[in-house]
Amino acid sequence: MLMAEPLSVEKFRKRCDAKSIEVHTTNEIKPSKEIIGQDRALRALKFGLEIKEQGFNIYISGMPGTGRKTAVADYVNALAKTKPVADDWIYVNNFSNPSEPNAIRLPAGRGRTFAEDVGALIAFIVRVVPKIFESDDYAARKEATLKSIEAEKAKLFAKINASAQQQGFIIQSSPMGLLTIPMLNGKPLKEEEFMALPQQKKEEIQQRRETLNAELRQAFHEMRELDGKVSEAIGKLNRDVAEVSIGPRIQDLRDKYHDLSEINEYLTVVQNDILDNLGQFADEQQAQLPPQLRFLQLKEAPFRKYEVNVLVDNSKAKGATVVIEHTPSYLNLIGRIEKEVQFGIVSTDFSMIRAGSLHKANGGYLIIPVEDLLRDPLAWDGFKTALKTSTIAIEEPGEKMGLISTRGLKPEPIPLDFKAILIGTPTIYQLLLTLDPDFRELFKVKADFDTTMDRTQSNIKKYTAFMCNFSHKSGLKHLDGEAAAGIVEYGSRIAEDQEKLTTQFGKIADIIRESNFYAIQDNSEHIKSKHVSRTLEEMIYRSNLIQEKIQEYIRRGIFLIETDGEKVGQVNGLSVIELGDFAFGRPSRVTASVGVGRDGIIDIEREASMGGPIHTKGVMILGGYLSNKYAQDKPLSLAARLVFEQSYEGVEGDSASSTELYAILSALSGLPIKQCLAVTGSVNQKGEVQAIGGVNEKIEGFFEVCKAKGLTGEQGVMIPSSNVQNLMLKEEVIEAAKAGKFRIFDVSTIDQGIEVLTGAKAGERKPDGSYGEGTVNYLADRRLREMAEKLREYQVK
């Protein structure tokens, strides 16, 4: 087995040749609005948008910054323009039950027109009706109508008088009503004269009075009937006169909306209500109110019931509606019923019903960030109910929760037909799938947005097309070829893969914005490579205060890290510290001590409750490696302790498991490890070194320490061979490597790694199970055999 050689500098970073961009600046590229690098998501999205069956709503799954929301919105908007415009919806008064307003569907644009037509009709009636009742023609017809009835009343009164006189009475009117007064010798009797009459005479007069009173009661009944005839005749006259004036106007509306039966039915009801309540249009009613209340009576009370509440107006739409609801609260989604206070009284009616996002998106598409939707305790439940029932029922939140039982409006539910699109993370998708049984039935289409895309020439062109489109859309300077190539390389850096590009276009957009700022400062016509480089440096500088503090502590000897010399059982390990917006590599000293015993490998981090489960698993794998390697002919009589020195926070991950194993092998063999090298990589029980994450940050973290202490040319990092494809190191590291001041070794096995670290041969197992004398494995195996014998001797004693 040949000892590993330092990695070629050309593999430190995969370059993007500016010539491959094929243009001088991105301004020469045709902008592209397609969704880049998301073929899988796009295919699912197309399917979900086109299928019409219920429940095939879409969940867009992806990490923030991948352009999920912008890409989906652009795609859906483009698709919506090819779809028919949705209908309008209006609410009108239910004259038979005002607490349950009626919803009416109209073709797009006709809702607003109908509302204007009805408003014009009411204005016409308000203006014309008072004039009708003031006209001479109306007065003449009213007088003629009253004259015949008054003649009947006079005839009836004369008949009563004649009957009274025949029976010896006269009829007089008083505040008490009509009085029947007896006559004697042609003269009315006074009360005292009547009382002075003989008893028989009085009884006779009283009998005649009762007979007359019976006739009077019948006459009064007939009189009331005549009064009713007066009211009925006047009402019929008013209705006939008004209908002649307003009927043609209403008929014009019927003709205009002849294709809408529900509108015609509503106009008939409105006409009947107007004719039944003509008095509300008379000026006399207004005059009876105090001046400060006349406007209230005129505007709000009589005529408000004829208004048309246009809930959804698609008159200006150019296709299906696309609604992006950024604040998906219950009221914003389902709609609300507003209230107003007048003179201390809270009131509401159908004209104060307001549309929610579901109404506006009806017949189109609704896009909602699921994280925001789940924050409102009622929103998710209301949203699901609308999807399950395919209707929108506006309901007060208090009533829905059973907290309010006061009488309120119950608007007629509206049929719902739209496509719902939720945007969220994979974690929320899994939680909803697990915890909500309705979710699977309502969102049957999942569109996964990947965080990376293949770095092919075709995709690089799409990448630069995005830069062009973003610069144009945002009013920024365009990038020259070298700057665009630099951003392509940065895309691979974020993806941590030489063969991939990140699809987190939010980060790419931020780089372009900041580079544009520096280009403006330089009065540059275009964004150049130096502006992109400065942006990346400034972004790091703004966030790496903690990294610099740690490096300072290492340089001053507060944190003990050695970058030269050799030590037994001591290795420089590498870890990554995540600070949210910034990640950096931090070297840590890993030490191992070994002794006789049966405890195996003791993880001090775990014993101190500072090690995570994955780190614990990695340490336990080391025992499997040692058993497989050295315990085939003897028991593993070992008590080894591992620790991350000066580690004051939790340790998680298995990327240091190979480092810990190297420390144990060094302690067992007695061979010192070069401190000029730092190590990363996980290991399996077969001794194969496996890939880890954050390889660029780890290498750069140790490089910064070496640079601070002084580069000697011997320093470097050892990484798994499978991580070479992830290298996208910064220019400073590459330049140091070119100058022979820094090296990177890649290894596939522990044997290769231990050779690099110790300079000694690892040693291969011979057929008899032994190893070549003087090799690392020979020395470690011999030490373990000695420890097993000592343990056996101790037990015998």
Q: What keyword list fits this structure?
A:
single chain; 797 residues; alpha/beta; Helicase, Ruva Protein, domain 3; Ribosomal Protein S5, domain 2; seven-stranded mixed beta sheet; five-stranded parallel beta sheet; 28 helices; 48% helix; elongated
CATH class annotation of the domain at 565-796: Alpha Beta
Task: Give the C-alpha Rg.
Answer: 47 Å
| Low-pLDDT stretches | 284-300
Estimate what percentage of residues fall within beta strands.
15-25%
Amino-to-carboxy terminus distance? 44 Å
> In which range does the helix fraction lie?
40-55%
Write up what this structure looks like:
This protein is an alpha/beta fold and 797 residues long. Among the domains are: 123 residues, Helicase, Ruva Protein, domain 3 (Orthogonal Bundle), CATH 1.10.8; 155 residues, no CATH class; 232 residues, Ribosomal Protein S5, domain 2 (2-Layer Sandwich). 48% of the residues lie in helices and 16% in strands. The strands form ten sheets. It has a seven-stranded mixed beta sheet, sandwiched between helices. Strand 4 and strand 5 form a beta hairpin. Helix 18 packs parallel to helix 20, helix 21 packs across helix 25 and helix 24 crosses helix 28. The longest helix has 58 residues.
